């Protein structure tokens, strides 16, 4: 029973971070119908951003996140101009490949600069005990930051004109142009936002686990699963999807060998796409 | 007929693309060249020089890049030392020198096989050293054996390679089956009351092999294995798994996989303050970067193929009735530091040892004939800075049976985390922290 | 039948593969053979993937699952049951085609990104399942005793033997691609690619056609998997189901020309050569991955129809001989 | 004064030419209509003027400026607003949000509150359904919303593409009442309609588009009396 409770809490906490990681992917898909295969590489870039600020300038990792946030938006807009915009009207495949090419470039240059040696941000915020559950400080903070960013995003998307414009472009790009929304600028900015979310989540993950330039791949796959759980293109759903994934990962080991976790995750993933492509929340 | 000409032109161009500019030049087997005698041998006018090509692949990119780099540097240092000595002199006055040839295998098997074939047939490699990791080595060993080349494997501990009937593949590392058994011995010695162990491992070729062996060994020693489970390679969040481990209430946790998962696991065990008396995990604790974990590293035990503070020496060789050869540990460590600016770990030592074993075998064979070298390797029983080296000549031909692991533990001294050898008794540099205080 | 015999495109395709493939047999150079083994392997993987990706327009990221499963079935039969490589490869192919037919019937209902994501899920689910399945070695995989090569006249002969088999398979897969492309069935696939709903209205049984295309694309990767791991002497889940290889396959198709017969052949060969060159070139060694990425990006943006597609557009005359 | 002019426009999709040398002009404060049968190229003409399709040749002049190659959002920013065929609402957003999006042009922002009141006064139903998703509205309500969204942009020229399409007859009459009201307020409008009868009845000036070419133009009242128009379009 204690195990169950402890795993439940652990799963939920990490779920918020997973959800945040997936949000960028699902946002970009929702707005421009692009499956961003450089998502994982961008997550890794975020990890290194925070790491370098921490080791190089001694900057607190959580402050480092703020800088990574700004850099993420700028980088994302540059990437949009190079790899997305020229191909937006082409076949589906071309943006898949161009984003994959971006990922190759990031990982290639990253490997040269940082090698694939695992890095670790040595930060320990202690832990507290609540009944049978021991909460690690870094995880609680990470979950809180994730919630904060997600709430911020929600408010931005639903309360500000730019946010609403993003949703309008996602919903109907031609109509958005007709009412005077500069859709190209909005698309670029959305890609910036998506990139920012990926990098910030990477930075957060870096405060929890050791990582290397290749670590993004794992989270990219998890993000796919989460997006599908929450409904592709639905950032709010992503948070829910993240929580579900966190719970699955937390609870499966209680009932069966931990090695089966990915089998169940991916089987579930395929089943959900087949049965409810709009996600658990969405209507059929 | 214009169409025909077009057809032929296009055909020609396409064929050119597909075959590429692959040179069809059959590489002549490297003849013993009576090349320019090196200046060092001028006093021996009849000296013949012979250059052997030593080939291997290194993972300059991909998941093994780090370990592989160390290993490669070890090999290169050995070569440099040999060159400094003016090469390897045989009794007939021949001076043997080596030329090293290596490529990046991207940590993938397709490349390994392609490149080893290239090394053998195009670059005329006479002798081979394995890539890093058991998986890649398994792929390379097939090629080596297919061409009847001698291959010294290092950075590859898997046992199974030596059960495939290979005749010329020799292992430097202590095999996986004996990797963690010492931890069980240590536990029993330190705490006769300890009864329960949890064996948890990464689902990879190497770690699974180690885990199965240690489980069997622990059971034979009368311990109860309360949990035996593998986790997916690439796992980053161990919390749920740790909850499960805690529920099984083991006295000791034994297992792990590679550096990344191992260090993550150790960090999270610490953060969770998991109440166990001993934690022994593979690979990670032996890597210097493990110290980055800070307090989380303290108390963690790890098997190591070799430590710079180990006590192998000409004296200990004499005591064990073995011949000593090659540099002492101090010589190797200072040479490595001088060349690369930091202390070598066991991957680097393994690389150097592979070269040294080849050198020794040629010396023993007193010839560069592959059959003679093979015979020498079969008969080899020496102590080097890396430890005792002896190969199985029976069913598991080439398996390392001489070399033993040492077990190190991260301890805190004057506010700094340092590594100490705590097992076996004979090699230890400090008393173990047991039980863990958390 | 005559129309096939007289089609220069057919002859060109066959000859290119044949000339390149026989090259190592003439020179007897093992290095060339190893290089060509990889090239032919990728040609087969790319040109079979092209049936689904290029002709039908479904982006399959999980193509490698056919290769991996085929490899596992074949390797198991050879190493554990002592089968000869040829029946083992055929059995593997049969098993995998069945798997593809069933799987295709289920997941081809999905379109666009959903299908693409589902294929990733399938590959990962199968891989992680194999990792946990001890009967086929689980995470450790399986190894083959070296003496097994004696059945083929020693290890050297076994390698040549595997190579010749691969050459035959590659030829067959390129021919399959050609015949699908030029058949009425293939036209149906192209119609599905252009507009699936319209194709349905026109009376093309899209679900059935897609499933058949999916199953056809699984025949040869399964055999290649068996041959590759037979030559390797061991198999591990990580090597058999490497998602990255699927993506590389897609890159090759794009490079050569999406939806053409010759495209995947040219693309696979060029890509393999290029990577090989970059890997061993001292100039690019450290940056080869990034360099390949830049190149890919440039191609997608500036030559989106690939080498063969570009030639066909640029020189309409070439169309007759470059299918 | 001509506020909007299309001069010798040609355009189409891919290799298929649809518009052939089309010229129209809108006089300020008047309601101009372009009528024609299904497939005559009416929608293509509007999309070309708006910049959703790039013209092959010809010019678009708005408010004395050559705007031929400006993207649609720039034109909207200047006050040229199209209410597209099939409404093209932001179906996933609420009614209110749709209206707010209508006020995206900088020139419309300060007047947002004022315009919103005007829209709610014109269409009380929209006020009731303010927080409902646009996709859940009925066809008539959606057309109202599309019109309301256009008004929110504070247009200088308002262009309608087939506003009556798919509406029940009663709703069509309601819609034309509102168009008349806007006209009375002095709005310059371009109405593209298949419902020739009604369109000619409310308009000041008319063009007849047939197979991508302007066949007839003139004061609406005159065009309405022409025999060929009566036969071909009015079914009399």
List the helices and strands and how they pair.
The complex is a heterotetramer of chains A (284), B (438), C (323) and D (236).
Chain B: H1 2-19, E1 49-58, H2 65-84, E2 88-89, E3 95-104, H3 109-121, E4 127-129, H4 134-146, E5 150-153, E6 169-171, H5 181-190, E7 196-202, H6 205-220, E8 224-231, H7 239-248, E9 252-256, H8 259-272, E10 278-281, E11 301-304, H9 314-320, E12 323-324, H10 329-340, H11 346-365, H12 370-379, E13 381-384, E14 387-390, E15 406-413, E16 416-423
Parallel strand pairs in B: 1-3, 1-4, 4-5, 5-6, 7-8, 7-9, 9-10, 12-13
Antiparallel strand pairs in B: 2-3, 11-15, 13-14, 15-16
Helix pairs in contact in B: 2-11, 3-4, 11-12
Chain C: H1 2-5, H2 8-27, H3 30-55, H4 64-80, H5 85-107, H6 112-132, E1 142-143, H7 154-182, H8 184-194, H9 196-201, H10 206-232, E2 234-235, H11 237-240, H12 243-256, H13 262-280, H14 288-302, H15 306-314
Antiparallel strand pairs in C: 1-2
Helix pairs in contact in C: 2-3, 2-7, 3-7, 3-10, 3-12, 3-13, 4-5, 4-10, 5-10, 7-8, 7-10, 8-10, 12-13, 12-15, 13-15
Chain D: E1 2-13, E2 16-27, E3 31-35, H1 42-50, E4 57-62, E5 65-66, H2 72-78, E6 80-83, H3 95-102, H4 112-122, H5 124-128, H6 139-152, E7 157-161, H7 169-184, E8 188-193, H8 196-202, E9 205-210, E10 213-219, H9 220-225, H10 227-234
Parallel strand pairs in D: 3-8, 3-9, 6-7, 7-8
Antiparallel strand pairs in D: 1-2, 1-4, 4-5, 9-10
Helix pairs in contact in D: 3-6, 4-6
Question: Would you tell me the overall average pLDDT of chain C?
Answer: 90
Low-confidence stretches of chain C: none
Biggest sheet character of chain B: 6 strands, mixed
| Strand and helix order of chain C | HHHHHHEHHHHEHHHHH
What is the CATH T-level topology of the largest domain in chain B?
Rossmann fold
Overall body shape of chain B: globular
- Helix percentage range of chain C: over 70%
Q: Mind telling me the C-alpha Rg of chain B?
A: 24 Å
CATH architecture of the largest domain in chain B: 3-Layer(aba) Sandwich
| Count of beta strands of chain B | 16
Q: What share of the residues of chain B does DSSP label as strand, in percent? A: 15-25%
* CATH topological fold name of chain C: ABC transporter involved in vitamin B12 uptake, BtuC
Please give the alpha-carbon distance between the first and last residues of chain C.
17 Å
Q: What would you report as the Rg of chain C, rounded to the nearest angstrom?
A: 19 Å
What oligomeric arrangement do these chains adopt? heterotetramer
State the domain count of chain B: 2
Largest interface: B-C, 54 and 66 residues
Q: How many angstroms does the end-to-end distance of chain B come to? A: 87 Å
Q: Please, how many domains of chain C?
A: 1
Number of helices of chain B: 12
Helix content of chain B: 25-40%
